[in-house]
UniProtKB/TrEMBL annotation:
Residue ranges occupied by any Calcineurin-like phosphoesterase domain in the UniProt entry: 57-249
InterPro entries recorded: Calcineurin-like_PHP, Metallo-depent_PP-like, STPP_CPPED1, TAT_signal
This protein's name: Metallophosphoesterase
Originating species: Burkholderia aenigmatica
Gene Ontology MF: a single term: hydrolase activity
Signal peptide: none
């Protein structure tokens, strides 16, 4: 395969590039601080520095299995390419987190296909999830909880420890309304406060939820209304990483010891905040799709996301 994109690539070629732009992000623990590394770089033998790191875990988001519109008629194919990236890594993580919208319409057959595909993550021995709003269209006792509810006693929120890091999965989509902020609710916030009390302030913390845990763009509901209370419980910790999906694009910021990071989708792009008709699947010309996904070349060393999610950007 040529290292450069043709001037007018086919939609099939452009969708291949989607996997480069939306494959996922690895996180490396160094000195108690989690650092994101673009998955495509870590899987490439051309980038020795990225390939040599020991990844702690992988974040994948917004796979939307079941979606088949023009923005990407083969979402299963691009998720499969994401999985192929992980399986090709020279040093592989043991843990993966999916930050929601595994499916598009919460249908049993969509969850079946997603489970089949995700089982192909050969190096992954532990997969943790939180639901997106598309995973719970059938309510809080529906297909998502039948398949993934055990870890949380069917509440959706839970915590676990991995390699000295305390992970907390939160749910902010159960009362989802279009263009409204997500919410955690008093019961979940009370549980979170209690869960954190027993933790030393030197413990690295990873919080993951579907909708952003800070307000990126309120008119489109890109935020969580009561996230401020949750963050107040986390202020005393020396290293906190908050991971979200939902907006299908990378937005990051650092506030004190807290790093916020939203992930790209493996399915399709949506407009940037305030641009276009709303947060809907974005269909672009095939020669524009790689640019909309942050990809200008199949040659990974020219990937523009390297600056966005590399150590330098988030330092």
């Amino acid at each position: 395969m040529s290292s450069d994109l043709p001037s007018r690539p086919s939609r099939r070629s452009a969708l291949k590039c989607l996997a480069f732009g939306g494959a996922g992000t690895l996180f490396v623990l160094s000195g108690g601080v989690l650092t994101p590394v673009e998955l495509a770089l870590a899987a490439s033998s051309k980038d020795k520095a990225a390939a040599s790191v020991v990844p702690l875990f992988l974040q994948i988001s917004d796979s939307h299995i079941g979606f088949n519109k023009e923005a990407n008629p083969d979402v299963a194919g691009t998720l499969k390419q994401t999985i192929d990236y992980v399986n090709a890594m020279p040093i592989k993580p043991a843990l993966a987190i999916h930050t929601g919208d595994i499916t598009h319409l919460s249908k049993p057959e969509e969850f079946d296909l997603a489970a089949q595909l995700l089982s192909g993550l050969n190096p992954i021995t532990e997969l943790h999830t939180v639901p997106g709003e598309h995973d719970v269209t059938d309510g809080p006792q529906g297909e998502y909880f039948k398949r993934f509810g055990k870890a949380s006693d069917n509440r959706g929120y839970y915590s676990f420890d991995h390699n000295g890091v305390h992970f907390i999965g939160l749910v902010n989509v159960l009362h989802f309304a279009p263009n409204a902020l997500g919410s955690l609710g008093e019961d979940q916030l009370s549980w979170l406060e209690s869960d954190l009390k027993a933790r030393s302030s030197s413990t690295p913390i990873v919080v993951f939820a579907h909708m952003p845990m800070w307000t990126i763009y309120a008119p489109w509901g890109w935020g969580t209304g009561d996230a401020g209370q949750a963050m107040s419980y986390l202020k005393r910790f020396g290293s906190v990483t908050v991971l979200n999906g939902h907006i299908h694009q990378i937005v990051s910021k650092v506030e004190g010891n807290v790093t916020f990071h939203t992930a790209r989708s493996t399915a399709f792009p949506i407009p940037t905040a305030g641009n276009g008709p709303g947060p809907v699947p974005l269909t672009v010309a095939s020669d524009q799709l790689p640019r909309m996904l942050g990809v200008t070349s199949i040659k990974i060393s020219r990937h523009p996301l390297a600056a966005t999610v590399s150590d330098t950007t988030l330092a």
